Amino acid sequence: MRLEGKTAIIMGAGQSPGQGMGNGRATALLFAREGARVLCVDRDPGSAAETAELIAAEGGEAATFEADVTREAEVAASVNECTRRWGRLDILHNNVGISVAGGDAEVTEITEEAFDRVMTVNLRGTVMACKHAIPVMREQRSGAIVNISSIAAIECYPWVAYKASKMGMVAFTRQIAIQNAEYGIRANVILPGVMDTPMAVDTRARAWNLPREEVAAERDARVPLGGKMGTAWDVAYAALYLASDEARFVTGVELPVDGGTGCRIG
Ligand SMILES: NC(=O)c1ccc[n+]([C@@H]2O[C@H](COP(=O)([O-])OP(=O)(O)OC[C@H]3O[C@@H](n4cnc5c(N)ncnc54)[C@H](O)[C@@H]3O)[C@@H](O)[C@H]2O)c1
Questions:
Q1: More confident residue, 51 or 18
Q2: pLDDT tens, 181-198?
Q3: Catalytic residue at 162?
Q4: Mutational pocket test of ligand 1: of 10, 11, 25, 42, the residue with most ligand atoms within 8 Å of the beta carbon
Q5: Which residues on adjacent β-strands are paired with residue 230?
Q6: Which of 9, 83, 161, 193 is the most exposed place for a label (fewest CB within 10 A)?
């Protein structure tokens, strides 16, 4: 019960269609298993409800809230919903992120629309969630923010908007970490590597009209540790540590969860 008595918001607690478990859903489940009450926020209410049902089936406590992180009023309403229900907000986990599905492309191909869409969902969505969560946490004089970036922020990566937004999240996390340290608020960022999630594998298989196994095999081959992608649980366990009091002296950290992929850089 590493999160006993805490309340958490997971932004993007549903998951893309496909096989297996997404990062947001696994994190919501794990936080609930460890004693947190979890508000599952997603623009897809059906998918958030599936996550909440999985939590309830295990005896955990969860609620759902429909919000699109590109709409500030809806993001603010999710924070209000958490405090209205449970009186406090201890953990904000920003998991929402899009890449291929947002129309991202190489620099010579990128459109203004695709660039704006990916930046707005990935970076601005995170900024707006923090904008509304931080005043509550300052009032409490405690809180933990976990942002989900990507190893794409630092490794060689083909598409511009995803990379820029994910590197922006790293810089933003360091900024809010130092600006809110005096209030007892911690902010850290996880850089997942190639993970076997529906968002990463099934979305690409659909977009490129390839068999899932082919996409999965190409991704496995890129991982130094055991030649296999990580899973959503690897991200969830890292988030659990950063969200818990075990990390009480850890803030402003970039934590790769990537099976060694980042070590290739040097
Ligand atoms: N899977 C990987 O290989 C990998 C690698 C690096 C980083 N990541 C990061 O992990 C995060 C997501 O992983 P996941 O497996 O949970 O993905 P996912 O797509 O399964 O889940 C994300 C959820 O966010 C929701 N969402 C999308 N746009 C939204 C919006 N505008 N407002 C509210 N909700 C919205 C979706 O409905 C979905 O339920 C992303 O930030 C992604 O960049 C993943």
A1: 51
A2: 999 999 999 999 999 999
A3: yes
A4: 42
A5: 195
A6: 83
